[in-house]
Design goal:
Layout: H1 2-20, H2 24-31, E1 35-38, E2 43-49, E3 56-57, E4 60-61, E5 69-76, E6 81-90, H3 91-103, E7 107-112, E8 118-119, E9 122-131, H4 133-153, H5 174-181, E10 186-188, E11 191-197, E12 200-202, E13 205-207, E14 214-221, E15 226-235, H6 236-248, E16 252-258, E17 263-264, E18 267-276, H7 278-291, H8 295-300
Antiparallel strand pairs: 1-2, 2-5, 3-4, 3-8, 5-6, 6-9, 7-9, 10-11, 11-14, 12-13, 12-17, 14-15, 15-18, 16-18
Helix pairs in contact: 2-4, 3-4, 3-6, 5-7, 6-7
Amino acid sequence: MKRLLLVWAICCVNAGIASAALDTGKIDQITGLKGKLNEKEGVYKITSPRADVKITVDGWTMPPFMGLGTWAAFIGTNEKAMMMGDTVLFEDEANPAMSTALDNGLSVTALHNHFFFDHPKVYFMHIEGQGTVEELAGAVRKVYDKIKEVRAANPQPKDSFAATALPEKNSISAEPLNEIFGMSSEVNNGMVKFSIGHPATMHGVKIDNAMGVNTWMAFAGSDDNAVVDGDFAVTEDELQSALKAMRVGGINIVAIHSHMTHEQPRILFFHYWGRGPAKKLAEAIQGALLASGLSGISTSAAK
């Protein structure tokens, strides 16, 4: 009798483990891709070679096998899983894909290039998320579908934002932007620039604005037809809120990466580019400062 009870108990435990394991079939079904299980690490990984557009690197047509593969890996259980992935993108896909990821509960942790002299330019967006398998696989599928949507509309990647040409002479009004950011700007030949430090330490030395740990934004063009470009310095906890606010404000993110090692706290940087009326662009950036909790730093730099 005891033996039967022991066998029954073992079966129940095994059944519980099986039910808790990743439902790989569901991942395949939701994402539309067939994955592979790494039994040693308990990771299920889906992959998709980027083969819809021919890519050349240094004049060589590059096979997807050589590093042009989109992937997403899942670990954990059906109810408590983690996903990490890397997504191969062209320039006109990066921001639509990023917004889709952010809007569906994923975090975007890096955006960068892997090559020189690649045509068209290829970027890689790293994503991660935590939740149920269904939530994560569904979010990944939406990112992939958004990329397909962009390519369906234009089979060949675009080579510009297709915005209205900027005036030859810059004439940005500084005062309205000074008021939005609560600080004085640097003015140069009709262009306006702001810089806000993000205090940190590195190798025991205090570093700040002058050492390059800063958020900056430079405006050119006219008040009604302006461009802004810049860099945003954030901690890991501030990154996602800042990215979301910038994308909601219509600002394009063009890179996410680190600039340093051994700094405390860890600082990440994202570079951006926006087009539109100068005040609207400034309000979008100020919204990102507020959303990420950096408005206090902005106020400390005020005039």
